[in-house]
Structure formats: C-alpha cells, structure tokens
Amino acid sequence: MLPQTLFVLASALSAVTAGPVRKRCGGKPNVSSSTVLEASTPASTVVSATSASASSSASAAPITGPRLPSTGAGTQLPAASGQLQHIVVGHGIQNYTCARADSAASSSTGALAVLYDITALAPGGGGAASMSEAAWAALAGDVLHGTAIPLNIVGNALTPYAADVAAPFAAGGRDADLAMAGLAAPLKALGRHYFDAAGVPTFDLYGADQMLVAKKLNDTAAPAGADRGILDTGAVAWLRLGDNGAGGSRGGLSTVYRVYTSGGASIACTEANTTISVPYTAQYWFYS
Ligand SMILES: *[C@@H]1O[C@H](CO)[C@@H](O)[C@H](O)[C@H]1NC(C)=O
Ligand SMILES: *[C@@H]1O[C@H](CO)[C@@H](O)[C@H](O)[C@H]1NC(C)=O
Ligand SMILES: *[C@@H]1O[C@H](CO)[C@@H](O)[C@H](O)[C@H]1NC(C)=O
Ligand SMILES: *[C@@H]1O[C@H](CO)[C@@H](O)[C@H](O)[C@H]1NC(C)=O
C-alpha cells in the first residue's frame, strides 16, 4: 500500500475517534497496518459473514481465537460455553418509558439495532484483518460517534433520536452494509435486534439464517471508563442472554453476550407517559 494511502486512512480514523462528544479514555486506538487497513481480507480461522450464510452456521468451523472481554472489575458475566458463532457490532437505540416526570421514573422497554459482522476483525482471529486490542475495544464507540444511526430516525421535541414507530428499520427487511473511515471494506449487515410485540428480546441474524429469541440471564455494570454516548448518559450494562425456551430460536444459537457498550443509558424523565430513545452501540457475541 502507498504511504499516502496509509496516511489518509490513519487520518480518517483519528478524525472518527477524536470527535468532541467522545468521552472515552485511553486516546487514539493503535493505528498500525494490521489494525484497520485490511478488513476486506477474510481471516482464515474465523467465520466471515459470507461463509456463515453460505453454510449452516451451527456446523461451521469453530472460531477459536477471540476471547470474550471482561469489564475488569466487580462480578463478571459467567464464562461462555458453546462455540463462538459470530461477533457483531450493534448500532441503534435503547428505549425507556417515563411513568412520571421524575428523574428516577424511567424503565427500560427495549431496543432496536442493526447488527454488523465484525468477526474477522477480532484480535486473536489469526487473520490479516485482526485489529489490535485497543482498536477492537474502541470499535463500538467509533461506530456510535462516527456513523449515522441505521434506523428511520424521525425524532420529536422530547427525544431527538426516536425512530419511526410504524417503520423503524429500513424497508425491505434488509440493511445496508456499514462503510466506515479506516476500514478497507464495509461491515456486512448480518441482522437486527429488536423486542417483539410481547417485549421479548430477539436477534434475527438474517445473513446467517439464525434467530435467537432470548431472555436476560445476567448483567454487570459497564466499566467505569466506558463511553457515555452521544447524550452523555452513560453506557448500558454488559449482559448475557439465553434462548428463552419458547421455541422461536433456530440455527443453533443458545446465548449472546453484550459487551463493550457505548451510550444507551436513560436520560432523566421530564414528562409522564413518554418514550425516550437513546443511541447506543455494543458488541454482541453469539454462541451455539
Ligand atoms: C499496535 O499493534 C501492533 C500490531 O498489532 C502491535 O505489535 C503493537 O505492539 C501495538 N502497539 C501498541 C502501543 O499497542
Ligand atoms: C422504541 O422506540 C421507537 C421509537 O423511537 C419505536 O419505533 C420502537 O418500536 C420502540 N421499540 C421498543 C421495543 O420499545
Ligand atoms: C447467571 O444467570 C443464571 C440464570 O439466571 C443464574 O443461574 C446464575 O447464577 C447467574 N450467574 C451469575 C454469575 O450471576
Ligand atoms: C399516563 O397513562 C395512563 C394510562 O394510559 C393514564 O392512566 C395516566 O393518567 C397518564 N398520566 C399522565 C400524567 O398523563
């Protein structure tokens, strides 16, 4: 690669990571050539979105390198069992309803996000696209601060990041891939996260023909230094969710972990009977 090209890509990445709303500590991610510049090259030992959708993911070659992160303090989520199937970055909104006009009166009612395959970028994946640990840990925050929310955001006077209630996602049931400064190739849209009509957290990985209809099993607070997000409200907790046993899951998924969260925590309620939507990103790790 030409030195000028490297410089342009490196500059683009620092621009993404150095925005004024960024609250992350730790400064710029490690911008080496192995960090971000070869994302188009599929890693040999990881399942790319393409190979995952071409074959049944449950029987795809195991992904062995990447290790689920820990928050570094306090009670940790239980260790993962099963085989790692996909790592995605989710970008969307967390919803809260305000029962009263009272700062403590919000309760979580669900979330909506588009999920992009980042499996081949994981450190330890063994492939040329593998990021440094620092760039990987910063990736969700870079997506939050550097790219548009991939939903039909309409906003309203109360909550500028509200999605269109009738049609929150892109039409046609599929989402555009995500081009990002510093990445050689766009991240493939692998699926969507939403809460169904009964309020059940659901992960529809349409790109891999897999579905996880889930329930929350465990949670732990995001690290103290976590990215507080666009509204400066703080990062939502890290979670472990499992198949809810109601029979809606398919394709062999059993658990998902939400880690490296950015933003998404509730703002204080100023009006009763309202829904507030707060932008967030996170990595989701899916296991068989
Ligand atoms: C940056 O990443 C390269 C390649 O992954 C690694 O060799 C180097 O030690 C990293 N430097 C820092 C400061 O993390
Ligand atoms: C979240 O709020 C958006 C509006 O911002 C709405 O379109 C969506 O249906 C809501 N979803 C949930 C699960 O509350
Ligand atoms: C995780 O959740 C499961 C199911 O609710 C529970 O049995 C287990 O004790 C929890 N583990 C931790 C470490 O919180
Ligand atoms: C909020 O909604 C409930 C149920 O619809 C209603 O009973 C209540 O009066 C409403 N409160 C306010 C402050 O509008």
From TrEMBL:
Sorted UniProt keywords: Signal
InterPro entries xref list: DUF3455
Signal peptide: 1-18
Keyword Hydrolase applies: no
Any matching Pfam family: DUF3455
UniProt region (Disordered), positions on chain: 57-76
Coiled coil: none
PANTHER family named in the record: MALATE DEHYDROGENASE (PTHR35567:SF3), MALATE DEHYDROGENASE (AFU_ORTHOLOGUE AFUA_2G13800) (PTHR35567)
Protein name as it appears in the record: Malate dehydrogenase
Organism: Apiospora kogelbergensis
